[in-house]
Design goal:
This protein has 250 residues and is of the alpha/beta class. It has a single domain, classed as NAD(P)-binding Rossmann-like Domain (Rossmann fold). The chain is built from 8 helices and 7 strands; from the N terminus they run E-H-E-H-E-H-E-H-E-H-E-H-H-H-E. It has a 7-stranded parallel beta sheet with strand order 3-2-1-4-5-6-7, sandwiched between helices. Strand 2, helix 2 and strand 3 form a beta-alpha-beta unit. Helix 1 runs parallel beside helix 2 and helix 1 packs across helix 8. The longest helix has 22 residues. The radius of gyration is 17 Å and the shape is globular. Belongs to the short-chain dehydrogenases/reductases (SDR) family.
């Protein structure tokens, strides 16, 4: 069984569908997009898989103990098990600001969702994660030297912190055989930044020009990498940040 945080749209939704094809049941979480979660659950059911959806605000760490209880109840009720095989920390939030424009409110918002949330949610769910299981965190090519774009300093700093956290958790959880990796997407067509690609399609061509394979990513491109990393085929990979960007800024 796999839990995909932020699974109601974009990369998380694609990862859920790919993971089901590998034989797992999935729980997807949503915050403001319940219809997307319902859509992915119904689509998986139509293909013979099993999925469930639960609400979660990754920025609200005080809710995590209650959420862990709801995950446990859902696992028992739907799959008659008390354990997870995989956890995908994929909740996202975006925001840009140049030096002199930063506010503590926006800084804290990015910190809560992109770094603090994944840490404490993983801590809350670790007891029910099966030995030999897998954790995948979604990071970003904004953390790479070649991916530097003005305005993304705080966003990239939080994602960079998640890359470092991934490496440390890989060491700390290795005694249980739990692998921890991250996936670093480049520009990808998702709902982040208030559906920017949908609203401003003129942004796409300049970004595609910076990608070696000549286009921006689709959610399925990254979802397939996440599904691979939670699978048995990736059993000898841990502590890595895997770039899935089509060659962003090569």
């Amino acid at each position: 069984m796999a839990l995909i945080v932020g699974g109601s749209a974009g990369i998380g939704q694609a990862a859920a569908e790919q993971i089901v094809r590998c034989g797992h049941g999935v729980i997807v979480t949503y915050r403001r997009h319940p219809e997307g979660a319902e859509e992915v659950v119904n689509r998986i059911a139509a293909r013979g898989g099993t999925a469930a959806a639960l609400p979660l605000d990754v920025g609200d760490t005080a809710s995590f103990d209650d959420f862990a209880g709801r995950v446990r109840d859902t696992l028992q009720r739907t799959w008659q098990t008390g354990t997870l095989d995989a956890l995908v920390n994929n909740a996202g939030v975006s925001g840009t600001a140049m030096l002199g424009e930063h506010t503590e409110e926006n800084y804290e918002r990015l910190h809560r969702v992109l770094l603090k949330g994944p840490l404490f949610l993983t801590q809350a769910l670790a007891p029910m994660l099966a030995d030999g299981g897998a954790i995948v965190n979604t990071t970003s090519t904004s953390t790479h030297a070649a991916g530097t774009t003005p305005g993304y300093s705080v966003y990239a700093a939080m994602k960079g912190g998640l890359v470092v956290l991934t490496r440390y958790l890989a060491g700390e959880l290795s005694s249980r055989g739990i692998r921890v990796n991250s996936v670093s997407p480049g520009p990808t067509r998702t709902r982040l930044a208030d559906d920017a690609f949908e609203k401003y399609p003129e942004l796409i061509a300049p970004l595609a020009d910076r990608i070696a394979l000549g286009r921006i990513g689709e959610p399925a491109d990254v979802g397939a990498v996440i599904a691979f990393l939670v699978s048995e085929e990736a059993r000898w990979i841990t502590g890595q940040d895997v770039e899935a960007s089509g060659g962003h800024d090569l």
